[in-house]
Each structure stands twice: as structure tokens, then as C-alpha cells.
């Protein structure tokens, strides 16, 4: 639909979800949040989708919550209780999610970036945790942001609200790559092409493994990892992958080129 705020397109197993509300800097309005939730649900529920890309139109990736809607509203009405579900969709997605950031991200927009598995930014993009400067706390986004950031940087940037560029975002762990604007799409494609080579169940299991806290008992951890390895090694994907390697062919889950 022409008037939708979040577009959805699937091509060669890659679902691209595009924020398209440039009039308010892709702010997380109630309508945009609802559409984004729906598009993410569609991607996660489609067996033909292997990788998800979160992108945007206009000069700004996402400016955070729509403050015009939030003014005078209660906490329930501000989307504070709704936004965590979106971050959780991204964080727990069994399919890898890549953020494509061509412009500034602020507050909740940085939370979206951090919730994705891989983030690629144009070197002209900037970021900021601007919450304290308007009298609020970056509480909800801290759930996805803090696991990504170096602790010293988190304290500095959360407390000062200072804007920082993409190269620093890469240095502190917020994004994986900061490239020239004209190279952004090629770099995103490089990552999605690599992710599409992974087996779907293996990717989902690897994501869960990366996110699970490790117990103190090293013997128990090794036992769990041995069981996980054996289950996938002997499973259908593992056996297909081994057969493909030996037969010098692509495994069945790798999409054919157009």
C-alpha cells in the first residue's frame, strides 16, 4: 500500500523491512510500531525467508519514540510497554537480522540497531542515547544495547547523551561495519549472502547458544555443548551439509542465483 509506514519485500529468501515515515524521521509512532510488529511477524513466520534486513527511507534511520504522541500520555500510552515486544522479536528471531543504517539513529532507534544480529552503517551515520537530555531514562533499550557496548563507553554515552559517529559505534561494539555511503548496500549484501549459506536450524541454534548465559560449572557447559554439537552433526542438516561438501555441491538450503 502506498500509505503504509513499513514496507515488506522478499527476494531470494531475504526479507527487507523498510521504515518509511520520513516526515517524522521514522519515529516509532503507534502506527509504525504496529506495522513493524506485523512485518516482523510475517518474516519470522515465512519458511521461505532465511535472512531479515531492517532498513529505512529518508535521511534518518530512526529518531526513537514519537515525542509528539508521548507528550501528556501515561506510560501505558507511550508505547513503553509495547516497544519491548519489538526488540524481543528482533533479538530472539531464529533468522539472522541485519540492520542497514544510512542515517542517524537516536534513543529507541539505537535499541533497534542493537537488537539486530549484525549492523552495517554508513560512515556518515550518527548515534546518541539522548534520553537523559529530555528527562527520561534509556531503560528499555538498555536490554539490547548493554550486551553490545564496552562498559566504559556505555557509562559515558548513556550519561552524557553525546552524539557519536559510526566509526566509534564500530569501536565500541554497536555496529559491525562503518563504510562509505556508496558502499553501504554492497556491504549489507555481503553479509546477507554469507548468512544465506548457513543452514536454517543451525543458524537458529547458534543464535540461542550465543545468547544463553554460561554456567560456572565448566564440565556441565562442555556436556551441553557436546550434546548440541552431536544433535546437529547427526541431524538432517548436518548430514546434508557433509554430503554436499564431499560431493562438491551446494547444500539444499543455499538459494540459487537469479
Automatic annotation (TrEMBL):
GO terms for molecular function: methylglutaconyl-CoA hydratase activity. CDD domains: crotonase-like (cd06558). InterPro entries: ClpP/crotonase-like_dom_sf, Enoyl-CoA_hydra/iso, Enoyl-CoA_hydra_C, Enoyl-CoA_Hydratase/Isomerase. The keyword Phosphoprotein does not apply. Pfam families: ECH_1. Keywords: Lyase. It is an enzyme of class 4 (lyase). The keyword Lyase applies. Its EC number is 4.2.1.18. Gene3D superfamilies: 2-enoyl-CoA Hydratase, Chain A, domain 1 (3.90.226.10), Lyase 2-enoyl-coa Hydratase, Chain A, domain 2 (1.10.12.10). It comes from the Bacteria. Belongs to the enoyl-CoA hydratase/isomerase family. This is Enoyl-CoA hydratase/isomerase family protein. It comes from Saccharothrix algeriensis. The lineage of its organism: Bacteria, Bacillati, Actinomycetota, Actinomycetes, Pseudonocardiales.
Amino acid at each position: 500500500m502506498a500509505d503504509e509506514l513499513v514496507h515488506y519485500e522478499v527476494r531470494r529468501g531475504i526479507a527487507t523491512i523498510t521504515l518509511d515515515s520520513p516526515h517524522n524521521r521514522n519515529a516509532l509512532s503507534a502506527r509504525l510500531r504496529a506495522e513493524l510488529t506485523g512485518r516482523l511477524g510475517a518474516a519470522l513466520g515465512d519458511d521461505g525467508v532465511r535472512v531479515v534486513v531492517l532498513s529505512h527511507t529518508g535521511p534518518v534511520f530512526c529518531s526513537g519514540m514519537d515525542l509528539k504522541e508521548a507528550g501528556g500520555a501515561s506510560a501505558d500510552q507511550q508505547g513503553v510497554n509495547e516497544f519491548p515486544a519489538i526488540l524481543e522479536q528482533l533479538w530472539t528471531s531464529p533468522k539472522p537480522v541485519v540492520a542497514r543504517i544510512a542515517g542517524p539513529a537516536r534513543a529507541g532507534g539505537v535499541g533497534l540497531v542493537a537488537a539486530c544480529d549484525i549492523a552495517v552503517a554508513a560512515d556518515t551515520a550518527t548515534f546518541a542515547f539522548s534520553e537523559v537530555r529530555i528527562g527520561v531514562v534509556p531503560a528499555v533499550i538498555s536490554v539490547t544495547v548493554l550486551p553490545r557496548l564496552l562498559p566504559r563507553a556505555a557509562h559515558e554515552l548513556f550519561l552524557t547523551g553525546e552524539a557519536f559517529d559510526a566509526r566509534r559505534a564500530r569501536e565500541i561494539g554497536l555496529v559491525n561495519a562503518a563504510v562509505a555511503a556508496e558502499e553501504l548496500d554492497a556491504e549489507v549484501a555481503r553479509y546477507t549472502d554469507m548468512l544465506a549459506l548457513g543452514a536454517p536450524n543451525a543458524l537458529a541454534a547458534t543464535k540461542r547458544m550465543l545468547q544463553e548465559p554460561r554456567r560456572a560449572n565448566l564440565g556441565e557447559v562442555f556436556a551441553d555443548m557436546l550434546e548440541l554439537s552431536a544433535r546437529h552433526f547427526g541431524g538432517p542438516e548436518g548430514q546434508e551439509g557433509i554430503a554436499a561438501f564431499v560431493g562438491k555441491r551446494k547444500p539444499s538450503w543455499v538459494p540459487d542465483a537469479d
